[in-house]
Design goal:
The protein is of the alpha/beta class. It has 14 helices and 20 strands.
Length: about 500
């Protein structure tokens, strides 16, 4: 009887603690009080704001490790820093009472008042401070899964249907990059052992990279279970690159569920729900092309649009364009075609446009009238003469303009050449190389704090990295941006050649 009562009490206590942490997380990330109302505060002394405008995360980062705001450095509020004594600037460790004073009055435990322009003064009851404290006590406390004293483990996902040669080419880049990292890591560890490294450097930061290959087979609705099985057997710190056919949705959902960074997968069918944080993509791929076509049609309207496709992997583009046309009041019809058969006759006219979601080898017997093509599907076919195309032809192109200098690609080609890596799938290989560079940059920055959210916070503030991204035009990185490239071109085609001088840049 007493044992049951004790267990029940512990269960209630654990539940209460868990609920406090969840409520504190919502305060920190979203600026929402346990009551469901937004937090309220004053900035600059007398300017009222709500927590949804000035949440803790917006300045201190998801990880709580701090950031930079203009010319100011935002200090960390994660558990390893906030609740321990700080030497610079000198202050005692925070507790619930001193944290409440900081939030309400902007005064630190050492008596220093923080600038009102940077630190809002929040109106918080004691119970709200208590749940926020419960969350901060565990924020970024300890390393994330996938890290031990000697190894940091990653995984790259490959789905069924990926070209084996492309898969091999990408893995050669990943493995070569990891091998070089590991050689450097072993040398740095030896430097420490021999006393060459300053005492401020800790040996625990040196870890070798291990990259596992997670192969997904069967229908997409089974991928989640397969990923869970891989993760149970060997948890990873992050996903790196990857190759996929079909929707990346099941992989993205797994990453959100386990808070695993998924860094720049090689997919043209990304999936990002509102509020997703953990997957960073190069672009929206096929869906972006659909939006480019929709924007061009809005400028040059027709009465009717016919979409023709034969590959189920382009379903995302078909659906995205259909929804856009419906909002614009444009009539749309879809033809699901068998790729093995010749195209049936398609009735067109001056008031009709045909969107052909085809690969290069499928471009035969195309209808007359205005046509739109996908450069993602055509690949290198964009640069080849497509002499069978007659009439007004346009290409949706979410990449750099063809024929324009690409310094980032030249850097990758030089790296590959010095390592005898053949460019069998240049775009996917270059993307894998960029993913490795980004991960190396982030891991180096986090030092001995191997916290997943910290890695993503670092990447969110690494705008200079995009200089190393080939193929894509006008990429940017920033907090909350989960697609590096947001826009693209619509290119007129004449005699099968892209007319870059008449290209229209479109930011949907």
């Amino acid at each position: 009887m007493l044992l049951v009562a004790a267990v029940s009490a512990c269960t209630v206590s654990a539940h209460a603690q868990s609920s406090d942490v969840a409520a504190g997380q919502r305060m920190y990330r979203d600026g929402i009080l346990p009551s469901g109302e937004p937090m309220t505060a004053l900035v600059a002394g007398d300017v009222p704001v709500v927590g949804t405008q000035f949440s803790c995360e917006s300045c201190h980062g998801r990880s709580g490790m701090g950031a930079a705001e203009g010319a100011y450095v935002v200090p960390p509020v994660a558990a390893p820093f906030l609740f321990t004594e700080s030497p610079q600037p000198q202050r005692p460790a925070y507790d619930a009472k001193s944290l409440a004073r900081l939030l309400r009055d902007g005064v630190t435990p050492s008596g220093r008042e923080l600038a009102q322009e940077l630190m809002p003064r929040y109106e918080l009851a004691d119970d709200s401070v208590a749940v926020l404290t419960a969350y901060l006590l565990q924020l970024s406390e300890g390393n994330s899964p996938g890290v031990d004293d000697s190894v940091i483990r990653f995984a790259t996902v490959v789905t069924e249907g990926v070209d084996p040669l492309e898969r091999e080419a990408v893995f050669e880049v990943l493995n070569t990059f990891a091998s070089e990292i590991n050689r450097q890591t072993r040398l740095e560890s030896e430097r420490w052992d021999r006393g060459y490294t300053p005492e401020s450097r800790l040996p625990t930061v040196f870890r070798e990279w291990v990259i596992d290959e997670w192969v997904l087979s069967g229908p997409g609705d089974t991928w989640g279970q397969q990923l869970e099985s891989y993760y149970r057997d060997a948890p990873v710190f992050a996903m790196l690159g990857g190759l996929g056919t079909g929707s990346w949705g099941p992989v993205s959902e797994f990453c959100e569920r386990h808070a695993v960074p998924c860094l720049f997968p090689g997919t043209d069918s990304p999936s990002a729900a509102k509020g997703d944080f953990y997957t960073l993509y190069f672009s929206r791929g096929i869906a972006l092309e659909a939006d480019l076509i929709a924007a061009h049609l809005a400028k040059h309207p027709v009465k009717r649009v016919i979409q023709v496709y034969c590959d189920p992997d382009v379903a995302l583009g078909v659906t995205t364009l259909r929804q856009s046309l419906a909002r614009a009041g444009t009539s749309e019809a879809t033809i699901a075609h068998d790729c093995r058969e010749p195209l049936p006759p398609i009735a067109t006219g001056d008031d009709t446009a045909t969107v052909l979601w085809f690969r290069n080898e499928q471009l035969a017997g195309l209808p007359a009238g205005r046509k739109y093509l996908s450069s993602t599907l055509l690949g290198s076919g964009l640069m080849a003469p497509l002499l069978s195309l007659q009439g007004p032809v346009f290409m949706a192109h979410p990449f750099r303009l063809p024929g324009k200098a690409d310094p980032a690609l030249k850097r990758f080609e030089a790296w590959a050449k010095t390592r005898d890596i053949e460019l069998a799938s240049a775009r996917q290989q270059a993307q894998a190389f960029f993913a490795c560079l980004a991960l190396k940059h982030a891991v180096k920055h986090v030092g001995r704090f191997f916290v997943r959210d910290y890695v993503l916070d670092v990447l969110d503030h690494s705008q200079n990295l995009v200089a190393y991204l080939p193929f894509y035009g006008r990429p940017t990185m920033g907090p909350g941006q989960r697609f590096l490239s947001k826009g693209g071109y619509v290119l007129p085609m004449v005699d099968g050649q892209a007319q870059t001088a008449q290209a229209e840049w479109i930011l949907p």
